[in-house]
Structure formats: structure tokens, C-alpha cells
Amino acid sequence: MLAARRGDAEREVDVEAIAKIVGSIAQLKGITMKVGQIMSYIDIALPDELRDALSVLQTHAQPMPIEQVRHIVREELGARADELLVNLEADPIAAASIGQVHRSRLASGKEVAVKVQYPEVESAIKSDFKPAAIGTTISSIVYPGAEIDDFIAEARERFLEECDYRHEAAAQKRFAAIYDGHPVILVPAIHDAYCSRRVLTSSWLDGSRFDTFLAGNPSQPTRDGFPAK
């Protein structure tokens, strides 16, 4: 057990139990993992140790094997998959609740990020979103005592929308157009020829995670997107 202090209240945190819970969530993926991700960054009263542990779920779920990734890409793209698969890196750079991302390179030499959806994740989310199964869990965390039927319906629709990567591709294109020429914000280009319902291919852009950026304690001008003087 670990004694930790938050404000003036002292409480004990079972680090081993937290690790087991997060590990189990990472295996389950789908809506269970999505709720864990949300809990890691929304402003609710969680022990810091639990919030930090849950943040791992944003990019480090249990990945599917590379053979399965290749099968899904080929199933989705047909002959177009060959150009992606020949240079597809075996280890994912991120694995989250609905899919995982691999680095690859096109025949032109352009590096791309290939996001591949887990098999049957859409069916799993539909099953998980039975109000009796998830309503109590979410309401007890976010809205204790509230009537959340409308919230559940909206969340279900949005999560299922995420299962069709064509929506994400369209949104990414809109943001790319909005921020075209912006001095700070860069939005990766979508490669339509290598996109489908379960595969999303974008131009590769090097960068760092937002929480990593904040951990460096940047100055306010840097946070605002302008060079510090």
C-alpha cells in the first residue's frame, strides 16, 4: 500500500490493484477502455496514481498481432494494400480503444501513419452500450443521481461513429483546410487511396504528445503557440 496526500486529506492507494485494473481494461478495449481513457483526463476526483495509470490507456492498449493487422488491411483495401504492407512496421506506435497505428512508407518514399481498427470492435461496442450495462457505471462516475438516457444515446452514436474511419478522414480534411498555412498548427494530409471504413492512412508528422509537452513546463507564450521572447 502507498500512502499519498491530496490537499489536506490523506488516503492509501493500492498501486498493485490499480495496475491490475488498468491491465484488465487494456485487454478489454472497446467502450470499457474508452471510459478508462475519458476518466484519465476529465476533471473528476480521482487519486493521482489512478489518473496517471489510466492515462496509459490513451496509447498503450494490448495490440493485435501484425499478422492480423495485415489481414485487415488487405481485406479492406484489396490490391491497394500491397504498397502499405511492404514497408509496414511490425510494432505499432500506438494502440488505443478502437484501433492501433503503424508507421509505413509509400512507393514514393512518403512516410505515412496507418490506423487499423480492431476486429469486431463495432459489435462489441453495440453490446457494451446496453443501458443496463453501462448507464450505472458512467452515471456514478460523472453524473451521480442524474437521468442519463439521452447522454447514453448520444455517447453510443458518437462511439459507433468512430468505428467508421471515413468520418474521421472527412473531419481531418476539414481541419486541414481550416488550418492551411497556419504558422503553428499542422494537420496530417489524408491519403484517400489507402483509406476505408476500418483503415485510415495519413501523412506522417513527427511530434510529441500534449502531456509530454506540458510536462516540460513550457512558458505561457510557448503554450499560446508563439516563440518566447
Secondary-structure map with pairings?
Blueprint: E1 2-6, E2 9-13, H1 15-28, H2 30-41, H3 48-55, H4 66-77, H5 81-85, E3 94-95, E4 99-105, E5 111-117, H6 121-128, H7 131-141, H8 149-162, H9 165-178, E6 199-203, H10 210-215, H11 220-223
Antiparallel strand pairs: 1-2, 3-4, 4-5, 5-6
Helix pairs in contact: 1-2, 1-3, 2-3
Describe it.
This protein is α+β, with helices and mostly antiparallel strands and 229 residues long. It has two domains: 1-62, no CATH class; 66-117 and 162-223, Phosphorylase Kinase, domain 1 (2-Layer Sandwich), CATH 3.30.200. Helices cover 47% and strands 14% of the residues. It is built from eleven helices and six strands. A hairpin with a 3-residue loop joins strand 3 and strand 4. The protein is globular and about 45 Å long. Residues 1-11 have low confidence and may be disordered.
Major beta sheet, specifics?
4 strands, antiparallel
Proper CATH architecture of the largest domain: 2-Layer Sandwich
In the CATH scheme, what's the topology name of the largest domain?
Phosphorylase Kinase, domain 1
Beta strand %: 5-15%
